[in-house]
Amino acid sequence: MSHTPLPVLIAPSILSADFGHLADDVRDVVNRGADWIHVDVMDGRFVPNITMGPVVVEGIRPVTDRPLDVHLMIVEPERYLEDFARAGAERISVHAEATPHLHRALEMIHGLGKLAGVALNPSTPVSAIYHVAENLDLVLLMTVNPGFGGQSFIRPMLTKIRETRDWLDRQGLTHVPIEVDGGINPETAKWAIESGATVMVAGSAIFRAPDRTLMIQQIRQAASHPSVPISR
Ligand SMILES: O=C(CO)[C@@H](O)[C@H](O)COP(=O)(O)O
Ligand SMILES: [Fe+2]
In principle, which of 29, 91, 143, 216 could form an S-S bond with 33, CB 3.0–4.6 Å? Predict the structure, then answer.
């Protein structure tokens, strides 16, 4: 199966930014090459952590013209879609596990004029999105268990990335990117890109890098370097 021609995009997760200087950190990663800004919304119910809501999206919206990529890790996401759309999200991803009405949630996002993504936990099979093929602008595959930054990439997710890419391509959805989220660094990005993902979310790797420009470049170009065996 040939690799998708979609460009590799870098989406720094502001979960690892300095919240006391959030605008400065957003500006900084944009100036250093970020394509999207990834916003992790957690409610303390879907995941065991509480982070930020629409006011933060609204606060960073004027800071950059880069797309704000909102990842909702909240139960009943339908209740808040309008708030995030109004706050300035460009894309909104909801977890398949967080709503019994996934199709409706995606239609709501489109009705608000936004791009719709579905996020899947590591344990959720790709078949969870079969019924919403026509409603997808993005598939977000968690490569850690959601809830926290700084965790290690779960390697068996590489098979799931490949399975998802093959399924999307078979549906004629070659334009729909796969975003990977969790434990992304230049090494894991290489594996993920070679498996068919093109949007790299990275929080700790970018915000804690001594040289953020270099880190963004290394993640973007990860797959251009010679293969090394995946160590076990
Ligand atoms: O959605 C999540 C975590 O649930 C992510 O977006 C993390 O924020 C990624 O952080 P790193 O693993 O890159 O540090
Ligand atoms: Fe995320």
Answer: 216
